Amino acid sequence: MSSIVIESGVLARIGAHVPRAHAYAVITDSNVAGLYGRRVAGSLGNAELFEFAAGEANKSRETWMTLTDALLERGYGRDCCIVAVGGGVTCDLAGFVAATYLRGVPIVQVPTSLLAMIDAALGGKTGVDVAAGKNLVGAFHQPHCVVIDAGVLATLPAAELSNGLAEAIKHGAIADEEYLAWITDHADGVFERRTDMLEHLVQRSIAIKTQFVRDDEREAAQRAALNFGHTIGHALERLSGYAIQHGHAVALGMMMEAEIGTALGVTAAGTVQHIHRAVRAARLPHRIVFDDTGPTIAATRSDKKARGGAVRYVLLEKPGRVARSERGEWTWQVADDVVREALKQFSV
Amino acid sequence: MSSIVIESGVLARIGAHVPRAHAYAVITDSNVAGLYGRRVAGSLGNAELFEFAAGEANKSRETWMTLTDALLERGYGRDCCIVAVGGGVTCDLAGFVAATYLRGVPIVQVPTSLLAMIDAALGGKTGVDVAAGKNLVGAFHQPHCVVIDAGVLATLPAAELSNGLAEAIKHGAIADEEYLAWITDHADGVFERRTDMLEHLVQRSIAIKTQFVRDDEREAAQRAALNFGHTIGHALERLSGYAIQHGHAVALGMMMEAEIGTALGVTAAGTVQHIHRAVRAARLPHRIVFDDTGPTIAATRSDKKARGGAVRYVLLEKPGRVARSERGEWTWQVADDVVREALKQFSV
What we know:
12 helices, 16% strand, two-stranded antiparallel sheet, homodimer, globular, six-stranded parallel β-sheet, alpha/beta
């Protein structure tokens, strides 16, 4: 695992946390360039800024090609270091550039959104989206270091805090019932951007995520638990053409997947309600309109966890604990009918 | 390291050497599809053939995208296995597809050219070419298994045998003086496709390559020795728009880089002549026309071994042994003037 630095004001002192390199390529998007990208590049010697247009639609193989060619054009060699400054899109995209540039160069992740701090920047998953689905092309490439300045969350829009909170709720749901309750009780403080609460949130979520990743970087076993809420979540996101935001989709996905577990007798009664309360507190949606659940179920089939053509779900035993199958597996095969019923439970 | 199976007639029994998978995607080019691709696909259960147009020009990000999208379209999941059947282009390209498809799926390499058997299929380097140079985009991804049927070399054109022999000469030059002499003495037998000689060639070259890769998969140290002849070789290839074949470029590159070492007093007298004799025996070119050596020197700068903007060369101590620098490094920085003189030595 990479080292993780959580330190207020660290962006101005980032030189202390990057590896020695002949040159630094700071990759950032058009929203973050002016806020933090130029500042980070300015605080590093021999650094250039590589900017791409903000938005999930640009987390594509085309943007990856453009960034790669720009680095080649500027003569970056294997002794360079890439520094990603931005949200989840930037972390994933710049990570895939680093994973494949000259067969791999070091990267330092500098996440500037809550979602990226507690999720995308950690664990070495990199990738881009394709028409068939999100993150279907990518590689595992651990960052040299993840540098987090929770102070930047002071300027993050409330909607982005909600997006991050969805992943924090997931961390509570799969690993820590107390943390799940803490989020429910303290979400208002997070929206008021109380420093102590933001820092607790970042630290606790990172601790849980790294615990699942540490011994399973390539997701052969327990790392799969981090996909709770994401099998349905990704399908909803994709079907909406990414009009539904990631955190919103995951919030709905978590409730629906908790409902699936309840219907199968795997998940304890009351679990859905626990998650529901947290989702409400995080100002995330808890209902969705379905004309027909068929397309959503079809969309889950391109999930990367699918095996033998069958979709696999992470199910909870209760809040704070993932259910393991009789064979000890971290994911479960679920019949379409059960999924359909769960989708309907949360539709209007 | 992956397991390597060298067995006459093994293509018909390939099922014994692939990992269990839900489905197999056999990737091959338009030249090899009819010769071996369909035969391999036919001998595996639940396999489909994915064919691309033959030629180095198609070892591109565009072909990689097309193959990836075709696999997604056909619903291949993480429980699939890719089987690459073909020469170096297919091994590198299909390897990069496998490295990045759903963040990595297993691959079995089935090289059908001498060059691919003793080089591209081994060691886990995957990649594609871009305008700025060869293999500048890629990833390390070790194959599950490499399956070699030296019998297929009976149908390989003589020019392709020459291409493969260039890498075999390199193996002798960096690791085994006796092997270098053996190639010089037995090249005619190889061109007559004498089974015993082809098998010795494949086995000895694989043994040397794997010895250099084993403890240094990511080329931090001794694996760099395998780049002997390639710094100049890649530059010649690229400047010619790939009209000069890889083996031809490497043959010229080896002689020129041996000459560089001689000029610097690093390489023993007579080394250039040893390599020259082997190159002649392998029916490879030993002279090239330069109008101006400047573009070749400029083209070496995009070499992946470049550090701090300076090009690094692998130099020999004598035939069969690589010279280490005083600091123990496997590559040397060389002044442009020395490179220019070496290029001129082999120009007409």
